[in-house]
Amino acid sequence: MAQLSGEQAATTPDTFDPEAFLVVPARAFEDLQVGEVFRAASRTLTGAHAAAFQTVSADNHPVHYDAEWARRHGHTAPVVHGLQVLAFTAPGATLFPHFIGEAFIAFLELSCTFLKEVHSGDTLYPALTITGLEHKDDDGVVSTAATIHNQRGELVLSGRHAYLLRRQPSGDEPSRP
């Protein structure tokens, strides 16, 4: 029987560890830094996306699907649902959950301001930027600025998220990537 190299052995079923199969090495709360940016993949919205969100949300206001109604009321086209745009700032749309691994406890809060209309055909560029790291008892609160720009470089959404993360037990050294 042929001997497997180290790399080959690491991928055989008897040595593969799914829990060690990480997109990026997980970091502790203590390893995060204010100013770090976690981007989501850009996404061009289509009429199909808007129709799917309308079905899920049950929001049937004609501003979202009736081009003539939208024009009569001052819009250039039907407007994508604001909550659909906000959903693009979900932490899971970025690599942030991969970076924090098992430290995540809860999504505490969010707020946002819709600054520009979004229409079918617009491409969105979401990002989360760490703005604060606060110790809270044995845990930590991470605050982020949530932003979405469109293909013209216009800021269409500005907001804030806060997450509760487990901190390392006292005496443990922070992991370093």
Automatic annotation (TrEMBL):
<dbReference type="InterPro" id="IPR029069">
    <property type="entry name" value="HotDog_dom_sf"/>
</dbReference>
<feature type="domain" description="MaoC-like">
    <location>
        <begin position="34"/>
        <end position="143"/>
    </location>
</feature>
<comment type="similarity">
    <text>Belongs to the enoyl-CoA hydratase/isomerase family.</text>
</comment>
<dbReference type="Pfam" id="PF01575">
    <property type="entry name" value="MaoC_dehydratas"/>
</dbReference>
<dbReference type="InterPro" id="IPR002539">
    <property type="entry name" value="MaoC-like_dom"/>
</dbReference>
<dbReference type="InterPro" id="IPR052342">
    <property type="entry name" value="MCH/BMMD"/>
</dbReference>
<protein>
    <submittedName>
        <fullName>MaoC family dehydratase</fullName>
    </submittedName>
</protein>
